[in-house]
Amino acid sequence: MAMSSILLMRKGLLINGLRRLWTCRVLLTDQPENDQQQSSQEHSKESDEEYEKNIKMKILAASLKYVHNFGWSQQAISAGAESIEYPGIIHGLFPNRGADLVHYFYLTCNKELNKILEEQALVVEQSPTKKKKTLELQVRDAVETRLRMVIPYKKTWPQALALMALPPNVPLSLANLLTLVDDICYYAGDKSVDINWYTRRIVLAGIYKTTELYMLQDNSEDHQKTWHFLERRIKDATQIHTILTTTSDMALPDLNYATEAACAAFVTARNILGLNWNR
Amino acid sequence: MLHLRQLGVRLMSTSTASGTTRSGKLLDSVIRVDHAGELGADRIYAGQMAVLGKTSVGPTIQHMWDQEKKHRAKFEELIRKYRVRPTVLTPVWNVAGFVLGAGTALMGEKAAMACTVAVETVITEHYNDQLRALMESDEKVDEEVLKTIKKFRDEEQEHHDTGIEHGAEQAPFYRALTNVIKCGCKTAISISKIV
């Protein structure tokens, strides 16, 4: 009994913990596209759910306008709902209040970035003669584009960051961040299939987050200092990467003698012990 | 928890429709575990070659190794194509594979062959299970993936037969050895499916 409950718990942990972070992009695709319209004639359970979700999306989209006044809060959602003629009390649909709004914003920005990157990739594909951007530049531009989406909400963004860091919201915001960096890496043409896959994404996530924090304090015109900061961080990362790869690529001393000696020793030992079967 | 699982199932059904460059959950895990497996196999043969490369079975092992390298390259290509997350444990399988290959090879060629037989048995079974699961599921799976798995399964079966021909069954402690290796392979497979 105890064993089975432990197993069950382990399974639950694995499913809800690990998968959530990386394999579970499904969590994020939960949200349907805004323009998806659902005919209200259908009465099956599934369509009811979709219908409800569409209304939620509409309300959240309308609420973004009120974030400047009310912050990422229940009031903003209420005001947004009223602006498109739903009762303000409908905020009850959003049990996580402000966090739902932040999540929605994050998700739409990610989608937009995805669209932009996809278009860029298409352009590059269609005109192979044009000089391609270097990898660092590509990553830098992608991060900059994404951060620029946050600028209109800069004043209230610290509140959003705080909301996302609350323990119940951490899995979702981590999944959001990881999907973001995964998209950037994918469109930048990351081809790694080993542990580098993880290190690159984690490093990029770190760069993104630190630059985001830097941006909040930055008062320079057009946030020039932030973009310089971002360039420096990317340069650091590539520098570390080159150091690590050159050391591992360095020619190793000739190992042939060592292997031969080890082999000979092993065979001799085996013969002494009489373990040379069927030879 | 039940609620969460239901949610998961529901989300899974919507995910394939909404993602354009993304793969379904089952395919995701299939490609990840197969890549891990081929990586391990590649390293096992590398280990065997390091010890037995200059003996009479050298060319046979080299031939099998070359095939495994092709398998690995193919799955690396699939990982990129379907945007699958590779397993976190690649460095572990890398080392473990080499140690297993070199370790059994040090016990003699027959033990090395026994190791090949054990590993290939598990892998063939595993590929068969996967084919069944992929055909049964309602996820849309490319013909390419199925063909690849089928072809690789046949080649792994060949390696298994080669191992038997080279006297794997006369290896010391054949039963115990193969069972231990089989058990290890199965554990590795179930871990790689998730992590």
From TrEMBL, chain A:
| InterPro entries reported for this sequence | COQ9_C, COQ9_HTH, Ubiq_biosynth_COQ9
GO BP, sorted A to Z:
ubiquinone biosynthetic process
Determine the domain of life of the protein's source: Eukaryota
Pathway(s) per entry: Cofactor biosynthesis; ubiquinone biosynthesis
| Keyword vocabulary terms for this entry | Lipid-binding, Mitochondrion, Transit peptide, Ubiquinone biosynthesis
**UniProt subcellular location:** Mitochondrion
The GO terms this record gives for MF are:
lipid binding
Main localization, broad class: mitochondrion
Q: State which residue ranges cross the membrane.
A: none
Give every Ubiquinone biosynthesis protein COQ9 HTH domain span.
52-82
GO cellular component term, pick one: mitochondrial inner membrane
Task: Give start and end of each COQ9 C-terminal domain.
Answer: 170-240
**NCBIfam families recorded for this chain?**
diverge_rpsU
- Known function: Membrane-associated protein that warps the membrane surface to access and bind aromatic isoprenes with high specificity, including ubiquinone (CoQ) isoprene intermediates and presents them directly to Coq7, therefore facilitating the Coq7-mediated hydroxylase step. Participates in the biosynthesis of coenzyme Q, also named ubiquinone, an essential lipid-soluble electron transporter for aerobic cellular respiration.
Q: Which family does it belong to?
A: Belongs to the COQ9 family.
Q: Which PANTHER family match?
A: UBIQUINONE BIOSYNTHESIS PROTEIN COQ9, MITOCHONDRIAL
The protein's name in its UniProt record: Ubiquinone biosynthesis protein
Automatic annotation (TrEMBL), chain B:
Task: Give one Pfam family.
Answer: COQ7
Which Gene3D superfamilies does the record cross-reference, listed alphabetically?
A: 1.20.1260.10
* Binding-site positions, Fe cation 2: E68, E120, E156, H159
| InterPro entries in the cross-refs | Ferritin-like, Ferritin-like_SF, Ubq_synth_Coq7
Cofactors, names only: Fe cation
Kindly list the places in or outside the cell where this protein is found, as annotated in its UniProt entry: Mitochondrion inner membrane
**Cellular component annotations (GO), alphabetically ordered:** extrinsic component of mitochondrial inner membrane; nucleus
The alphabetized list of GO BP terms reads:
determination of adult lifespan; regulation of gene expression; regulation of reactive oxygen species metabolic process; ubiquinone biosynthetic process
Its pathway, per UniProt, is: Cofactor biosynthesis; ubiquinone biosynthesis
Identify the stretch annotated as signal peptide in this record. none
Q: What does the annotation say about its assembly with partners?
A: Component of a multi-subunit COQ enzyme complex.
Q: What family classification does the UniProt entry report for this protein?
A: Belongs to the COQ7 family.
Name of this chain's protein: 5-demethoxyubiquinone hydroxylase, mitochondrial
Which species is the source of this protein?
A: Melipona bicolor
- Supply the gene name: COQ7
